Amino acid sequence: MEYAVSGKNVATLRSDCVVLVLNKGAEAPQELPAKTRQQIREVMDDGDFSGAQQQTVMLRQPEGLAARRLLLVGTGSQDSLTVPAWGRLITAMARAVSRSGARNAALLLDNLAVAEHDEMALVRESARMLEEATYRFDSFRSKKPSEPMKLRRWRFVTSGTANRLSRAAQEGRAIGAGVRLSRELGNTPANVAIPEYLAEQARSMSRDYDRLSVKVIGEKQLERMGMGGFCAVSRGSEHEGKMIVFEYKGDTGKPLSLVGKGITFDSGGISIKPGASMEEMKFDMCGAAGVFGAMKTLCELNLKLHVVAVVAAAENMPDGCAYRPGDIIKTYSGQTVEIINTDAEGRMVLCDALTYVQNKYKPHTIIDMATLTGACVMALGDQASAVYSNDDDLSRDLLASGEYTGDRGWPMPLFDEYGEQLKSTCADMQHVGGPRAGSITAAKFLQQFIGDVRWAHMDIAGTAWKSGSEKGSTGRPVPLLTRYMMDVAHGER
What we know:
Layout: E1 2-6, E2 18-22, H1 34-45, E3 56-60, E4 69-74, H2 83-100, E5 104-108, H3 119-133, E6 153-157, H4 162-187, H5 195-208, E7 212-218, H6 219-225, H7 228-234, E8 242-249, E9 256-266, H8 286-301, E10 306-316, E11 328-330, E12 336-338, H9 346-361, E13 365-370, H10 374-380, E14 385-389, H11 392-405, E15 409-411, E16 429-430, H12 438-447, E17 454-459, E18 465-466, E19 472-473, H13 478-489
Parallel strand pairs: 1-6, 2-4, 2-5, 5-6, 9-10, 9-13, 12-16, 13-17, 14-15
Antiparallel strand pairs: 3-4, 7-8, 8-10, 11-12, 14-17, 18-19
Helix pairs in contact: 2-3, 3-4, 4-8, 7-9, 8-13, 9-12, 11-13
């Protein structure tokens, strides 16, 4: 999608569709021609449009405008939208414009108000949300949709400075590109998106960006290195596990590190999952997909940062080589772990990845993300990712980035007492803490592999994909991560 910003007179703006957002019961803005305002008033008086949340009405050949269509979109009764409400409005708007057959559209921004977002943020986040709203996963259809989307260009019409706001639009497009990549990888079926596929996608990215390098460590080398946690999970699959290491050199000094769980399919292993909804276990690599998306946006934005990202890519399958409940595994850190349930595999690949990035790259901050526990879904549903951290400032910064983008997180505890549930009678620890506080004890397990470094863990099991009629990857937490990295690069975190 292409984006532009202009302050052109609305009456003479030649566009396939002009989009106007209106509060419930509000009058049309004075900058519109009198004929247009009168037509809108008649539509409202007739009851065709009330301004209710996400309500849309398309007017063909609107009076007083050079545009071919005028789309009215309702914001509800709020004077200022929340970010999630804004996202839903953008989705409704994008779908209505796409259905019309318009090839280009213009969004009037001056009467759109979002809490704690200035004009730059409105342009940036609107472009990002439009990228998300127009995404389709059609890669594996033998016949493409009969009505391909014609919409190719959006214009933001505002009284602000066009040059400055144009940069914001391109930033939004870059963030949207990262979200789309994350969604595409998450949606790709597990018979295609095996660990080697992810490795090749990473190599392809490194060829596209000068500042990005990629190293792929194969399973045999990982075994020689002593990564017992990772290899215990991976050896049950015929597809060789890979540890994928991205390094983005936009600055010098100690790096920020991102770590993603990349279980390309999770059968549960020997502790096999029930069959219902098991097809959704292709989404168990959405933490890794989030890393890919964040790194793509980082490269597109050319941020002044040094970032190292690690993806632990493996498949959890129950063949004769698979690890078993009761096994004791020696991890890369040297600590031993008693296996309780092989379906708790994500923490086993992550613990070695966390140790590796600390030993090799000495980061100042680590953020890991994983579709780690069903307990997180029970606690927070699909609205917020669980955020655990050993540093209050880091936790607050991530949560603030989530509020800014609508990619929300929620703070969770890491009390020492939760560690009692991980005590083992035969190893340094067990990797499952029982039925109580499952998301917390999983995070507490990972904390055992964190040294003297700022660290945050994000359990995205409830937010990384949707089930039901809209089943598919969401691309979260790419918006949160990229907002955080942009703030760090600009010295605001």
